[in-house]
Amino acid sequence: MNQSAEPIVEGIVALLPRLRRFARTITRNRSDADDLVQVAVERALLRAAQWQPGSRLDSWLFRIMKNAWIDEVRTRIRRDRLFAPEEAGEHVGVAHTQRQIDAMAVQQAMQRLNEEQRMVVGLVLVEGLAYKEAAAVLEIPVGTVTSRLARARETLQAVLVDSGQEPA
Length: 168
What we know:
Blueprint (H helix, E strand, L loop, with lengths): L5 H22 L2 H17 L10 H23 L18 H14 L3 H12 L4 H8 L3 H21 L6
Helix pairs in contact: 1-2, 1-3, 1-5, 2-3, 3-6, 4-7, 5-7, 6-7
């Protein structure tokens, strides 16, 4: 391995849990998320020379991931394919604790968000990026991030209140 590539590889390895979490947020499917992380890491490694040292590696990788997901969605639309989520029957017959029930309620509420809102929620609320950083990743104005996040929070709160869950 090239010595100049070592810091970026180490950074990517350290970011893998966050990349997986963001991928699960936007894809809503474990297998798709794993595939998306793999594609994003591969693209990042192939384009390592394009990363600007001193800039945020996580923002750069989230942008790559977002663009890879957009490419995948467009490809699926062209192929007119439908993928059934495996999570639908994941816990059949298993007694749930309240924490699992709450997590499922939040996942179901997230399903109600459109893709743009899920991406903003994933970057800002889950990954902790600042609005400005999320705007850069998504290539949209900060005001758009703010409005999408506000609408997403309203939707999540309404869905969770209707389902009997306490909003966070």
